[in-house]
User: Fold these one by one.
Assistant:
Number 1:
Amino acid sequence: MISFSQVRKSYRGGHEALAELSFSIEPGELGFITGRSGAGKSTLLKLIPAIERPTSGTVLVNGQNIGSMRRPAIPYLRRNLGLIFQDQKLLYDRSVFENVMLPLAFTGHAHKDAARRARAALDKVGLLAREKANPITLSGGEQQRLCIARAVVNRPGILLADEPTASLDSASAAEVMEMFRSFNQVGVTVLIATHDEALVERLNPRVLALKQGRLES
Amino acid sequence: MSTWLRQHWQTFRLTLARLAANPLGTLLNVMVIGVALALPLGGYLLLQNLGGVSRQLTGNPQITLFLAREAGKADIAALQARLPQLAGVRAVRFIPRDQALEGLKHTENMADVIATLQSNPLPDAFVLETSGSAAELARLEPELKALPKIAHVQLDSAWVKRLETLIALGRTAVLILATLLASGLVAVTFNTIRLQILTQKDEIEVSKLIGATDAFIRRPFFHLGFIQGALGGLAALGIVYLCMRILNRSILELARLYGADFSLGFFGFSDCLSLLFFAAFLGWLGAYMSVSRHLAEIEPR
């Protein structure tokens, strides 16, 4: 479960990204954060894995208070979250397969077990045939699917995606959205930030509309 | 525990693979460390060998007592009875002046000189074998001088003392050199690790974002520092060994001319092992300092 109450986030220099934000996402829910760029979508998503800390208010993730979380505890929080970044953050010095293996390197899986899981994740996003390829050779849609495979390989309970369809054509975007929906259908909590309102309307999910750091009712 | 060991083993293999993937860079780093360590190590080897020589020479320091010309048979007999009772004296040998002259005749180029002499100019002498250290000899000297009919007391330990002082001086020099170059090694590793961290900046950032602990991220850099230090230590031992072999050819020749059998000996197994561990530790230290300094700078935003 994710719960925000009275969350304010301001950056040095006085810019206020989020103000008085309160909402909660139940386990298994599919939620969208919409709003124009600069509305605070990315900031909201960064608060959940403790990439940013709230200036005031409380952010609870699975009962843990992000604001007061000690640094050494953060990696263990992040292992329960699947993160898909706006700038993808794929590693181009290694293969598709090795990119998906990365999150399994520090969770203590034996190599065989890890490889099996990585292939299962690649299979789910339809990239198993490209496992030896370098990510740079993949199309935009394939790269985004690779990000999804890396995010789900640890079987997280919560999936967070920041603008996952921003650079994709409408067919690839629909494909990626369908993938999120199928993860949600097997019980994963999914929270997606997007400015693509048309895409959201088709799915008819829970929507958190942000405007200048506040929720629009 | 087994997870921890497996992760270390995986990291170790990965680090070796990384080093092997960049052979030239690795070789250069190892050579820099190796040469830096070889200088004080070579100095230490020389001192260790010189120390062995000086210990051999001081094994039984001798004192020679020259008697006054007017000493008679009774005086000699009295001394012969008295000398062995002194503390620190192990053996007493009397060399009559005639025997000393006889001995001198057998020395090359001296026979002609001696043949021209009217009478024997040499005094009677006692040679004392002592068991004592340099300090005991110094204590014994005035005691011997105070004995009757003694003209001159000659300690043959004086130059040994000088040698020992020289060796002590050399030790200090080597220690200073070692300290300086050890800091150099730490600095070299510090820089190597800094570059490596920059190279892997993206990987580190992503790893942090998806739940890698700091310990996990640091580990490969510690391994890298440790392995590089150990390889540098190995290179230093190789360099010193090679130099020793080359020097020994000339030293054996030189020693033979002096009628001695002497050559440089290498370090024992445990010394080599300590050096490797010391070098590896210095590498680890450089990595530790570098990682503490630079890893915090890569914080995902």
Number 2:
Amino acid sequence: MRSNSPGLVTSDDHEDCLVIRDLAVAYGRKVVLKGVQADIRRGQVVGIIGPNGGGKSTLLKAILGLAPVTAGSIYLFGKHASQLRSRMAYVPQRELVDWDFPVTAYDVAMVGRYPHIGWLRRPTNHDRSVVEHMMERVEIIDQRAAQIGQLSGGQQQRVFIARALAQEADVLLLDEPMNGIDAGTQDIIMQVIEEQRVAGKIVLLATHDLVSASCACDCLCCVNERMVSYGPVTETYTVDNLAATYGGPLIMLGKSAEIEPAHTHHTGDHGHHHHTHEGVGGERN
Amino acid sequence: MQVIDYLIDPLHHEFMRRAMIEVVLMGAVTGAIGTFVVLRGLSFIGDALSHAIFPGVIIAFLLGASIFWGALLFGVLTSIAIGVVATHQRVKEDSAIGVLFAGTFALGVVLISSSKNFTRDLASFLFGNVLGVTMTDIWLSFGMGALVIVLIGVFYRELLITSFDRVAAQAMGLPVFLLDLLLLVMISLTIVVSLRAVGNILVVAMLVTPAAAARLLADRLLVTMSLSAAIGVASGIVGLYISYYNDFAAGGTIVLVATAIFALVWLFAPAHGYVFTNVLNRRLAGAAETQVVFESPEIQAPGRH
């Protein structure tokens, strides 16, 4: 644990923070993640990085109350996170969604309003205008009537981003949002993340795309079955720390102390619609 | 004989009028709830529930009580049991269902073997007896069916999100387990509605087949559900006429009509049918290629002016 002290705040500030203390998650007897410590303030973007199966998705799910937490605690704005679930918006990995389901892009985005609509009620004009506004923001409004499976990977991802935005939550949790999408969509997602930061939201971004993580994030949370490090990008985005997170092989990325991005996230490498980075399927859910 | 006579003639019989109402109710309700059975991949669970409510029906029958309440009680108990047993790590859900439904069905068979008219009674439960439907049966079917439809309306959004994206539903704090239970109870109610028309064994066909056909025709949940209900009703009516004129078993004929509709849709559905996706698309692709060649300026299409 190199640098898990920077960024920790005093209990007075907890009203404004997502606070994770000594978090451990286990499925049955198998501990998949432990020792997570992080204090995340409003207006911070935190990248969660690490190898496949290292616990990136698990950490997001633990915060959302979807993974079996066996030790530690998670507080949001001074309360147990489980009490404030509707203030957290989640964009799941694309692999978890049933794309053949008979819903339109608009229906999917409207789901984000459900916590606001409540039981036994219908969407109001305000709900509809929020959904339309968010769909415009991610440039998917033209496809509002399309069945979700007929959209391209990038368009589908934008619908899910619109859904998360429509929820008007305080915390945005994105699980591998850059997987298998076009460059234009990646740009939009990066812009949205920046806008959320400016608006004082908390953004958690689980990704294996180190370059976009280092560009978009204030802090990195490096996990590999345990938390390896947590801290500002300047301290955590180093060869030593990344090698410690991923194990040996990553050293080939660069031998100098500072990693020079080999390409930005705009390059054609991400340009294919159904391009998926290898090994994603092995991520533990 | 005129077509009109052909259609109206059977309705001169009181038992046919009642049967007609019963199959219409059954077709609409099974079609609507069946949409969720198909979208959630619950056909095995639907089959299991229909077997599991069997002992409830038999006990109520032997006690002279209404079979509806017996069936409902066992449907709810089995729904909860499936949910609870499957939470054990070593027992997978499909194993839990397999054990429970075979066990409860066996209990029903043993119980009814004590009845004096064992064979006849067993047959009417297993394969339905729509021509023997009473007005009480119809009113109970109507009540149960209306309850199911109202529940779908009330919990439409919750059922949609838990079916489409469970993880997001859980993340939003929706009571996913209770909603699952509600769906299972609604399926149980629907099975009870269908018992008279198609019987215990064939209920699952009415839960799955119309909805599976509708899925090939529609891209929105509400449309899928309406089409599925319409296909269910059409199967019921057409099946009943065919069985009347040919002296076939009504339940089996209704299911066969539904199966035939599914086969036609599977073959000829506009966007997702086999013919369109595999035959026409290939031909269109071929035609497009040819056209590209002709449009190229250097090459003159033969015989084209």
